[in-house]
Design a protein that fits this description.
The protein has 334 residues and is mainly alpha-helical. It has a two-stranded antiparallel sheet.
Length: 334
């Protein structure tokens, strides 16, 4: 379900782009996500702890997230309109490359050798997909737009990770409504034709499912399945998008596409394996020595040490659970 929600985005957008211009398409997709999750947030707001809500210190990351979410979907919609939905779906995997490299260069995240290898394969596959396919070495304009969108989302992922501990409802609502309104302004400046009410409703419904619910269920799934398994399931989304594009849009399959698809599948398997391999649990024993009333006491405390590394999206979470040790030390200081 998680991967299926997001996979609907590109093929369904391709169908709707025959009646809706790209910038208005991007605007109403995000407005659909923001309004839909905003309605859900209305019923959840009172139950939410205040410390989970965004603070003033989160404004720079929130602002950057909104700006990037204005640019990225506009580029994607132009790319989908100019190219094939199958290509655009598969090129979406380049977001992994962009996110990971940005996290490595800016946030100094560690990247395993396996993941570097997978990044190389995804890049190779993306290059193959980006050729115009007419016997020349010219890049497809549509592919360039899609790759531009994935780079923007790579930056956006790294901004959002900085506020990811905050309210999911609030983040998705702000992301959707503010980015959608921003795209509306861009569409008005570009003097694009305003779509009719029926098309607006269909685009917003798609936005609520493909963006709103996909993000919401992704974060919820992390809490149940863990970050590593959730990322592994999410990695299947581009391939579902390819399948839907070939079935519903009857797009032509080329030899270069088959080669790129094969490379991308292998790279994704490596990424999933690397992601799951970095989710592990260690048991540790700590020896604590303290002096009380002139007598030295030694205590051995066992605790569980949880590690969660999520590298497939460029995010590297490393959490430690030291509950028993912390309880003991806190008790000794009282």
């Amino acid at each position: 379900m998680l991967a299926g929600f997001y996979a609907l985005n590109v093929p369904c957008s391709k169908l709707l782009l025959s009646d809706v211009t790209p910038t208005f398409m991007a605007a109403f997709l995000y407005l659909g996500a923001g309004v839909g999750v905003g309605i859900m947030y209305f019923f959840h707001f009172k139950k939410e702890p205040k410390d989970e809500r965004l603070q003033k210190k989160d404004l720079p990351y929130t602002f950057a997230m909104v700006v990037l979410d204005i640019i990225a979907p506009i580029l994607l919609m132009f790319g989908v309109r100019l190219g094939t939905a199958a290509n655009a779906s598969l090129l979406g995997n380049f977001e992994i490359v962009a996110t990971t490299i940005i996290a490595f260069m800016i946030f100094k995240e560690k990247v395993s050798k396996r993941l570097w290898g997978a990044i190389g394969l995804v890049t190779l596959s993306s290059i193959i997909l980006s050729f115009a396919g007419n016997g020349s070495f010219d890049f497809s304009v549509g592919s360039v737009f899609v790759l531009g969108a994935t780079v923007c989302w790579g930056f956006e992922n790294n901004c959002t990770r900085s506020i990811s501990e905050k309210s999911t409802y609030q983040i998705v609502t702000i992301k959707g409504i503010c980015s959608g309104m921003g795209s509306l302004i861009v569409a008005a400046i570009m003097k694009e034709t305003f779509p009719n009410a029926a098309n607006i409703l269909m685009v917003m419904l798609l936005g609520f499912v493909a963006y709103g619910l996909s993000i919401f269920t992704y974060i919820r799934a992390q809490k149940t399945l863990g970050a590593a398994k959730t990322s592994a399931y999410y990695a299947v989304a581009p391939f579902i998008g390819v399948f839907l594009s070939l079935i519903f849009l009857r797009e032509r399959i080329t030899i270069s596409f088959i080669i790129a698809l094969s490379i991308m599948i292998f790279a994704t398997v490596v990424i999933i394996y690397d992601t799951l391999a970095h989710s592990h649990k260690h048991a540790h024993t700590h020896v604590v020595t303290h002096t009380h009333d002139g007598t030295t006491h030694t205590h051995t405390i066992e605790h569980t040490h949880n590690h969660v590394h999520v590298l497939s999206k460029g995010k590297h979470d490393h959490t430690h659970s030291l509950s028993e040790l912390e309880k003991y030390l806190n008790h000794r200081t009282v």
